[in-house]
Amino acid sequence: MKLPVLNKNYLYIIGSSVILYLVMIGIFHFESKWATWCLIGLLALFLAPIASRIFGNIENFLFCSLVFSLQLQVGFNPIYRQMNKMAGLNGITISLCLIITLLLFSTWFIKRCVKATRPLATNTIWNVAWAAFLLTSALSIVKTSDMHLTIFGLFEIISLILIATITCHYCSTRKGLQTVRTVLLVGLLTQSLVIIVQNITGVEFTLAGKSIVRDGARYSGTMMVPSAAATYLMVLLFFTIATAFSTVSRLKKAFLWFITSLGVLSLLLTLTRTAWIGFFIGIIILLAYLYIKKIIRLSSITYIVVVLILGIILAWPVLEKRLEEDHYEDSIVRWNLILIVYDMIEKNPLLGVGLNNATQVVHKYAAETPLVRNADGFVWVFIVHNQFLLIASETGIPGLIAFLIVIGIALRAAVLCMCARDPVLSETGAILVTSIVALIWALNMDHVTGAQTYILLWFIMSFAMGVLNIVRAETAARGSTQYGWLTFHPLYEAQNGATQPESTGLVDAYADAAGRFGAPR
């Protein structure tokens, strides 16, 4: 194979990265493991030209890597505090998703400086919403008991905003939409195989150290906790099921249903009840959309039923133990945590107890709150398993309102996309509506600060904003300006062909007329 020639953009990226790695090693005196990470990073950079040739260009390669890395809970902490902290963040976390995002942003910035690419496609109201959430989170530092922990939390929010911004930009094109849906399909297959292999072999392996398991019966794939892996599988299953019903190729249908079966089996094996219920809620929404659009008939539900029955049969030895557990005891535990957090919110309604600080003061408020004891007379004290209540307790009610507005804007964008006339945009909008609703349910049943699920949530929301930009751009190209106040640079997108409006006749988001997988029409 003849290697592609390195152009100036590649040389700038490689040179900047080499200098950055050398500075990090020289100043922070990283251990051998960090030196290994540096070598891996340098190797990846030097192989980037080959990868860019395979993927089309360096941006496509990096964006595919970003989407795939949603399931890879790996990173490092340049600043870390050894302390007894039950959950949340102990330091400045540089995740793999953030590293790829920074590389993508650098690539875009360099090309933009020479006017070789389009402006950053975002959404004004979306930007105001996340800025308000960041501001209310920052104001909580006034009441915080540990300022360093609050700074760690603020860095996480900034990281999420950066990931969301670059995702929105690259998802604002037809090419980006197809890339995301294709790579998420690969991600579902990868994560499903990892979890199935873990359950068969009994060998636990993650990318973030030892995962949290229960008596060796729960495995978390490439993530830290089983609930994060289950939520990831739940969301990706919505993409594959919707596509399996809408594609025309029998071979592709069979392939998608095979992957869906693996995904359902893996979801059951995670033993995460919240994700099971979220999947059920999402499937009802998705099937209702497909039925209203006359894409499926009532008899088509048989496919889902068969897959579920098959998964339950294969996973029954593990499921039986989970179903026989004392669920009443779990409900008492969660209720106690809610009582504690309500006391925290009542006494700190405006500024909260400080971002990322609930773990440090929870025992204080638990001692002041009447709690329900279990049969043995004990009470399990932890932070509340509800991300909305956790945000309210740490940043106050204004912080919760800002966070709800962020989610509300993304959900509205997904609904507008679902109402689009184009079948691919409408289908993608329906999947995103389903995903956001299911994620809202998941956030009501667990806390996700510092977890991979938080990144997944912001990615899905920004994906919805990007697809809305496509809808608005193509609406502007047709001369209509409906919902024009929601978007940024719609005319630029349409007039410069970034959204490829000529492909509005797509039925399958993955294939062209020749049936090539992953190719735009």
Structure characterization notes:
Helices cover 66% and strands 2% of the residues. It contains 17 helices and two strands. The longest helix is centred in the last third of the chain and has 32 residues, at 387-418. The chain is globular, with a radius of gyration of 23 Å.
Structure, briefly:
The radius of gyration is 23 Å and the shape is globular.
> Main beta sheet: strand number and arrangement?
2 strands, antiparallel
Query: Helices and strands: which structural class?
Result: mainly alpha
Shape descriptor? globular
> Helix fraction?
55-70%
pLDDT < 50 runs, ≥5 residues: 1-6, 481-521
Through-space gap between termini: 28 Å
Return the average pLDDT rounded to an integer: 81
List the defining traits of the structure above.
521 residues, mainly alpha, two-stranded antiparallel sheet, 17 helices, 2 strands, disordered N terminus, disordered C terminus
List the helices and strands and how they pair.
Layout: H1 8-28, H2 32-55, H3 58-68, E1 75-80, E2 91-95, H4 96-113, H5 124-139, H6 147-170, H7 174-201, H8 226-246, H9 250-269, H10 273-292, H11 301-323, H12 327-347, H13 358-367, H14 387-418, H15 423-445, H16 452-477, H17 490-495
